[in-house]
Amino acid sequence: MTNNELPLAASDAALAEAEAGHVTAPVAYDAVILAGFGGPEGQGDVIPFLRNVTRGRGIPDERLEEVAHHYRHFGGVSPINEQNRQLQAALQAEADRRGLGLPIYWGNRNWDPYLPQALQQAFDDGHRTILGLATSAYSSFSSCRQYREDFAKALDATGLWGQVRVDKVAQFFDAPGFVAPFVTGVADALRELLAAGTDLTATRVLFATHSIPTADAERSGPRDVDWGEGGAYAAQHLAVSEVIMQRALATLREEGLVGAAGADVPEVAWQLVYQSRSGPPTQPWLEPDINDAIIEHAAAGATAIVMVPVGFVSDHMEVMWDLDTEAMETCEEHGVTGVRVPTPGVDPVYVSGLVDLIEERLRGTPAAARVRETTLGPWYDVCRPGCCENVRAGFQPAISGLQP
């Protein structure tokens, strides 16, 4: 299948061009596929899984072992598959509660159950109009376009091009259901520190997300917009982090913990930081690294660090190792209290919010009627031309996007 032969992309694109990328015609989807990253579920799975993740890059197993020890530390089991099983079940329960009549399937990019299997099962069960929901909230190649390409590859692998329509839920970084659990988590963390006698002016809130190569970041989002340093990827994180911070402090103010309503709120400094970088040291990635930021803030007099995994939807390996292990160790080594905020996981508010996104597409909700928490949203249902290009491989066939 070439990039000029994308019959399914056109189904959304024709509708989207008139309204800046938002599909406002109801679509009778008859199934949803939850698309995940995947992860190993035993020691014997670790290296094969990492080979899948790095396929096409020629990385030898010796180098993969440098990452494998993160998984081996936890018995070779990534929590991500079990979390997606729970999310699938929670989404199904909520969809059933609303009477949507939509079965929720689940398939992964890098490990069993694979996305082509999920698509084939949906087809075998009689479904022909499918909505994809990726477990990733932000725009970049690996967090958005690659999932759109994954669906296209699944259509190729199953031979179902032209027989099944597959669209995708837009990036949901500022959807209320995704934002609210983080607001609760930050407020809880600050409340906990206050109860322990911590001075909030000596507290730093670090919003953490996965680092990506700067070249990928620069290509994230539509190319005809100047997103500033870090592209749309950084802009989305900054916008939603600011909202979370403001609302968490407003919550404490309403409770009388940081001053009466209308009074000045103590300055609680926050920063967007990055984690989990890989690749050669010569390749620029988004910075600062969370551990470097902790060291810097500790040296400047900070006594407490609140880590907010705002770039992640669940407590998978990057959260358990890079934050709960490495970053916490950095806090201890430099004499600061570390508190980590939960990810949304299967929080009922988050699950309900994801089903809201599904219903928006079922109903063809106009963009102006979709509630979002930043001025950047609602994000595009159909990605703009040139959005989130893969620096290494260029543009490949992908669903739910205007070409290329």
Automatic annotation (TrEMBL):
Involved in coproporphyrin-dependent heme b biosynthesis. Catalyzes the insertion of ferrous iron into coproporphyrin III to form Fe-coproporphyrin III. It comes from the Bacteria. This is Coproporphyrin III ferrochelatase. The keyword Glycoprotein does not apply. It comes from Microcella pacifica. GO terms for molecular function: ferrochelatase activity; metal ion binding. Fe(2+) binds at H210, E318. It is found in: Cytoplasm. Keywords: Cytoplasm, Heme biosynthesis, Iron, Lyase, Metal-binding, Porphyrin biosynthesis.
